[in-house]
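Student: Hello, beginner here. Can you help me understand the protein record under this note? Any guidance would be welcome.
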Amino acid sequence: MLQKEKVSGVAAPANTDGVDAHYDHVRAIFDILQGEREADLLLRNLNILDVHSETVFQGSILVYRERIIALNPDESVVRVREVFDGQGLYAIPGLIDSHLHFDAQLAHPAAFGEAIVPSGTTTIFAETLDFASAAGDEAVEAARALFKDHDKLPYRIYAFAPGKKTSVEVTDAMLKMDPVIGLGELAHLSYMTGNEDDFRKSALGRANGGFVNSHWGVTALPDMLLNYMPAIGAHNNHDVWNEEDIEKSVRYGFQTQIKFGVGSPEVIRTMLRAIVKRRWPAENFSLCADNISVNRVLTKGHIDWVISLAVEMGINPIQAIKMGTLYSARSFRMDNEFGSLAPGRYADIVLTDSLSKINPLYVFKGGELVARDRKLLKTVDLDYSGMVKEPRPGLDGLVPEQLDLTPIEVSADGSRAKVLLFDVYGRGHLKFSQEVWVPYEDGAVVPEVDGVRLNRISVVQRYANGERHIVNGLFKGVSIDRGAVSTFWPAPFAYFVSVGTDSAEMCDNLKRLDTLVGGCVVTEGGQVKASLPLDIYGVMADMSLAELVDATRSIDAALEELGNRNEGEPVVNKLLTLFISLDRFGFMV
């Protein structure tokens, strides 16, 4: 037990570690406000958005050691090292992504920052479950390498230990890491069955005093089980798709995260319309990407884009901004750190010329100008090559005949065959896979549904222990006249997806992709037309942002030459999102 000693008649602890540093800080702020010491930065000539009073006022912001220490300081008194002229622009808090699968964007942390920070995003709350799952036995070591030097990134990251796809031991170890703050989303199709690992992970999350993210599964769970996640302490929910989902999520007390990521071009509009129609208070909501490609961020934006869309859909501009700032910070009990422009908060500031259409002209993180005119000002010199793995091929013995589409059932008259049809992820889980009747001629399936010619898809296990698990069907989402495209994703199971028209071409394509750790390959006639290697555990590219964007766009260009007409997200990102539903609905083992 620590012994206490009397200091001026007051009991004081003998151990004062850290107190001196705090003393120096509070004394420095007092001295700065008295004009006796220099502050780091003064941003003047601003129209400052006060998200607390929902007003805009003309003024200036004083910054010291990354934090705001004064609004409208007396400039005849204060001394500063640097002055920045805000040119009359609006100053709003740095934008926040409240739920992002940080490991599923294909970019390593530094490259990802090159995309999101110029869009005004200064903080992300990030899932890491696919990365940890892909790393397997190396998960804990890999997570430490991923988070190493995270404080050098031009954005703040708060991460979550995996609630699914990894062992309890991995989750436990990651909960003890910085910057992990809680338990990530659970798999609702396992916790609804009373899965023991889910119970242990939930207990670990609660015991560590962290947050528990919810993957609520409102479209899949019976009403009684909808009580489970909020009852155990889960505080947020991004698994909403329509008005009814949102109503239940709000009623059950969740901070409801409105997502706009890969594969969901209309879902975000549906949800924003519902909020306007039902006049739900904006304080119930925060904004998130869930899954998003760097190409999408570069072409349309990130949280800045969805705030602008929310205004376009009828939400008050200040309320829309609060959904992407204060309400996100408050939901994680971090609104004393960021989410508003008030003394004591980090000086994470976006300067825009409009509040209704966010245009991040300048972005500050902790008072440092990190982006201007949608360009990162300084490349972060972080090396992730130590996480690059060697390929481990697993498709020896695969033959084209294993990819042939065979009927589940043939009609009595022999003219029709029943086969599986997979729809591209994002149009709703309930129609992800269906059994459909198609023409059957001369003992072969005709890949045609309602008169529309479709490509075939094969879901192929990479490492077989005995008979290789393969599921063949038809696919909506990619439409090529010739050639093939394949992708690989290792979490939670190592599987390929191949799309094409011919078994031999698809098989050859798969074997070429099998020579990589992971990624995507387009072929025609046995020749590689485009390739994107994911060398970091099969989920991230060891590339700069420019290299990654060029590679993803080359995939689209090659597929366009083969007849595909893509809209929205790059094809590689669309295909990779398939693995979420393939896992969810039991098509991988």
About this structure: The two ends are 54 Å apart (CA to CA).
